[in-house]
Amino acid sequence: MTLRIVKVGGSLHDLPDLGPRLRALLGRTRTLLVPGGGPTADAIRTLDRVHALGEEAAHWLALRAVSVNAHFLALLLPEARVVPSLPRSTDAGDWFILDAYAFFQKDDHRPGALPHRWQVTSDSLAVRVAVRAEARELVLLKSVSAAGGAWDGIVDGFFPEAMRQAPELAVRVINLRAMGPHSRE
User: Fold this and answer.
1) Does 1 have pLDDT greater than 70?
2) Average pLDDT, the chain
3) Domains held by the chain: number
4) Is residue 184 part of a domain?
5) CATH classification of the domain holding 134
6) What is the end-to-end Cα distance of the chain in Å, rounded?
C-alpha cells in the first residue's frame, strides 16, 4: 500500500485551527506526517549559538525537539499514532506521525543517511523518510508558497542534495496558511 509523506512545517504550529486544516487536507489517504522543527528546534539553535554545542550534539537535540512536535501533532490529531519507524502495510489506521529521533537513530548508519549539520532541516528529513518509504509523493506544508516550482528560500540548503537520492519523487509545496480550514486540495 502506498504511503504519502507529508511534512508539517513548524511555522504552522501557531495556526489555531491546525488540526482541522490537517484533517481536511489528509482525507482518508494513508499518510505519514513528518513534523517540522519550528520554534522548538530554534530553541536548540539558540542553545548551540550561546554554548557552542557543536553540530553533532545540536543535531540530536534538534531531532528530540522534532519528536516533541510529533507528540504535539498527536494531541491535535488523536486519531493518528506516533510511530518510531515506517508503518507497515498491516498497521491499522490511515494517519501516522513519525518520531524523528527514534527513526533517525536507526537510520544513521544506513547508506544515504543525512549529515549532522544545521543546513539539514525537516525538509531534507522528509525527503529521507520518503526515500526509505519508497514513497511516490512528498507534500511539504508550509507558511509560504513556492513560486513556479522555485525552491530558493522555501526549503533548506541540503534539500537539492537529498533529492538526488529520490529523482522520481514528486514534491509539492502547499501553503497551508492560504487554505481555508475546510479546503481540500
Assistant:
1) no
2) 90
3) 1
4) no
5) 3.40.1160.10
6) 21
Q: Are 60 and 100 in contact (CB under 8 A)?
A: no
**Contact 175/24 with Cβ under 8 angstroms?**
no
All cell numbers assigned to 157: 540548503
Domain limits for position 30: 4-175
Tell me the pLDDT tens digit for each residue of 31-78: 999 999 999 999 999 999 999 999 999 999 999 999 999 999 999 999
In angstroms, how far is CA 84 from the centroid of its own chain?
14
Indicate whether 180 belongs to any domain. Answer: no
Contact 9, 25 (CB under 8 A): no
Question: pTM, whole model, 2 decimals?
Answer: 0.92
C-alpha cell at 23: 484533517
Angstrom distance (rounded) from CA 173 to CA 23:
17
What's the pLDDT score for residue 147?
65
